[in-house]
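Why does this matter for the project? Reviewers at the last site visit asked to see concrete outputs rather than summary tables. In response, this paragraph embeds two records directly. Each consists of the residue sequence and, immediately after it, the corresponding structure tokens. Nothing has been edited or filtered.
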Amino acid sequence: MEKTDIRSLDLDELTGLLQSWGEKPFRAKQIYQWLHIRHVTSFDEMTNISVKLRERMKEECELVVLQQELVQISKLDGTRKYLFALSDGNMIESVLMRYKHGNSVCVSSQVGCRMGCRFCASTLDGLVRNLRPSEILEQIYRISADIGERISNVVVMGSGEPLDNYDNLLKFIHLLSDENGLNISQRNITVSTCGIVPRMYELAEEKLQITLALSLHASSQEKRKELMPIANSYDIAEVLQACRNYFEKTGRRITFEYSLVGGVNDTNEDVARLCELVKGMNCHINLIPVNPIKERDYVQSEKHDILNFKNRLEKTGINVTIRREMGRDIDGACGQLRKRFLER
């Protein structure tokens, strides 16, 4: 018999399960709080639940708990990179970044990735499997328990393409923002995508208040094809139209992620084309000095090229920032830590 993944159930589903066992509905709320506020690692910790009910949960339910394999702490900025083991032996990674406005966690949505972006370590070994809602949540819960502090911002921008794991992603967002659980505001949740256009339209219809971040990384369809195989399926114009639609449906400003690769996408011509692409959009461009990985020959843009790129964008009235490089000394880029661990 396949066990029920109890941490992936929302409150209504948990209530339904317990009522089918002949339990009162208030029990569901108690158990839900143990799972999503106290982040218990065993049913025995649920001290206000009867032994009989705890035993039944042990028999019929799986309690997903990630095991911390490794944590690297940056000497430069205190960023923490975690490697977690899943129950099937697979590994995923997550990052804690501390900012003035609170603790931010970057979580993975898949084991590996099948998108094939040329500058990313996550995708080098392809996709292994999707993560369940409980496994995405647990990254946040374990990090919060490790540092003894609340997490206030969540970015789904680790290994994997979140919209390639669409149903589990939606469930995760609803669980994370549920007022009966951790109750993180949807406005403090960012989901990154490389541009799966049909899913972007679906997401817009959900009317969530999350921020959508598009991994753009190029100023033209030709350059995007070089860097991102997804561009073979969806033209850059289609992707940008899906972004405009998302803003129209949700009122949420789009973020464009743009990894600057030396000599590839950081020229004055690139800036000019990028300005034309996003003209008139309510957007923010996040410039990312690319994190070099040994499996690829891409290099980071020179500092003066990065500043030039930023200044030229700002002169046309575009809101732009250069992402603070965090965790450079601890395999900070997506997929690097997992890849090195698996190689060892």
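We now turn to the second protein, recorded in exactly the same manner.
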Amino acid sequence: MRIVKLTNDTKKNLLDDLLKRSPNNYTEYADTVQEIVNNVRENGNKALFEYTKKFDKADIHEGNILVTKEEIEEAYTQVDAHLIEVIRKALANIRTYHEKQRQYSWFDTTEDGTMLGQKVSALASVGVYVPGGKAVYPSSVLMNIVPAKVAGVKNIIMTTPCNAEGKVYPTTLVAANEAGVDAIYKAGGAQAIAALAYGTESIPKVDKIVGPGNIFVALAKRAVYGYVSIDSIAGPSEILVLADETANPRFVAADLLSQAEHDELASAILVTTSETLANQVSAEVDGFIKELSRGEIMQKSIDNYGYILVADSMDEAIEAANDIASEHLEIVTANPFEVMTKIRNAGAIFIGEYSSEPLGDYFAGPNHVLPTNGTAKFFSPLSVDDFIKKSSVIYYSKEALEPIHQDIIDFATSEQLTAHANSIKVRFE
């Protein structure tokens, strides 16, 4: 891995490199995606089935687009029984964590006859997109469905690509069924996002779309945003390890590569106060890449977006971590909890050498759908909050309104909104 001295210039160059990975920079695909979205919006199933045939080589129609109960039962026979148990254990942890995020309606009253409050309602319908290309991610199925379920969403539907024979990954079906999905449709890519956003003869329109995908899925979500809500336009995965001389270089190298193996655009960064650790980690990374599968992907990721930054002090290292605002941040220092208190920007924070990033990906409970590309400065992980909406509740009696009604009239008049003022005035004529 490249080892560089942490300076303002090297940090700026790194941030510029990372931003190049943003879906917003792939505008050359935007017109193609918009054409797909418009076609599905106008022609519904006809366009959806044509794109499925073109891109997935599958003959999908009204009679087989919906995954049947029998197909789900068949999937259970094709998935190792131990893996099903692991999925159920992870599901329990994820559900328990998200249940603590529940919000409730509240109302405050006063003796003079006012009631103010907030009514919390779950979204009526949510669409979960699940990729089906290079790899299968049942963990993402759980992470997207469970918070919606905990929030109280009544209709959770999932779309995922099928293979040329019209089959969906068995582990995807098992995870979705265990999480409590209401319906699964065989549709992928930008065309599936359009179907969820606008509805077709087979796929119902939803209020919000969540879930990861490739650049075409990301751009399609951006194209339909406003007509429906979306979770985010996620970029490639990333990890930043903040370490001092006490860190185990083999552990650090393994954790960096846990994200580099996702794809060539993934970013793995070590910020350390120890030049010795920097060199040790670099050597360990080289060794692991030779041993592990997906070595070519990891090498490209490390070559293009991998960095080891050597800082003069831990405060300088922490400042860099906050500026980078990584999706995943591991703290492997002598006093990790003290360092954690100084972290402002990170999607998920992993503390100590036995809290490696895959623990969060699969099992611990917090959501692994996290802000990327520096958006952790203002975005949060996917949560129950993403599947609810809030309405303000206002009640005033005549006795409560009378003492302050002239104040409202004066305020409205100052804005030259006479009808507003009149709406209050007529009640006290």
